[in-house]
Task: inverse folding
C-alpha cells in the first residue's frame, strides 16, 4: 500500500490575516466649556484623523460648543493638548472655542474623580536600586 499525499500542503493557511490591520480607536469623553449640566459625549478617535485641526472639525460636529467651533482641547488637569500623541484612551477632555476654561463650579462633572490619567514616564535610574 502506498501512502497518500496530503491534498493541502501545510503553510500559512490559517496563520496569515488578510485585510487591513489597524489599531483600535481611542475613546474620548468630551465636555462643553461652561456647561455644568453636560454629562459628556463619547467620541472614538480613529486612525484616519492625523492632525489636531481635523480632530477639531470632527469634535465640532459631535459636541457643538456654546460659542463657536472647537479651537482648543484641554485634558482633566486643564493642560492644553498640543499633539495627538498627548491624547489618552478613556480620558476626559474639555472642548473650548478658544476661550480659557470656565470656573471650577461650572466644570464639576468634568473635574469629577473618574478619569484615566496618562501614566508618568519614569527615569531609568528609578528602576535600578544602587
Result:
Amino acid at each position: 500500500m502506498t501512502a497518500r499525499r496530503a491534498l493541502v500542503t501545510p503553510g500559512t493557511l490559517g496563520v496569515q490575516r488578510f485585510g487591513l490591520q489597524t489599531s483600535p480607536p481611542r475613546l474620548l469623553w468630551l465636555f462643553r466649556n461652561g456647561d455644568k449640566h453636560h454629562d459628556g459625549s463619547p467620541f472614538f478617535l480613529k486612525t484616519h484623523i492625523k492632525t489636531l485641526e481635523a480632530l477639531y472639525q470632527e469634535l465640532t460636529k459631535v459636541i457643538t460648543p456654546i460659542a463657536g467651533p472647537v479651537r482648543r482641547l484641554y485634558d482633566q488637569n486643564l493642560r492644553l493638548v498640543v499633539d495627538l500623541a498627548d491624547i489618552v484612551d478613556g480620558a476626559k477632555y474639555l472642548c473650548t472655542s478658544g476661550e480659557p476654561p470656565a470656573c471650577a463650579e461650572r466644570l464639576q462633572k468634568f473635574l469629577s474623580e473618574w478619569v484615566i490619567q496618562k501614566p508618568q514616564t519614569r527615569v531609568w535610574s528609578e528602576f535600578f536600586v544602587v
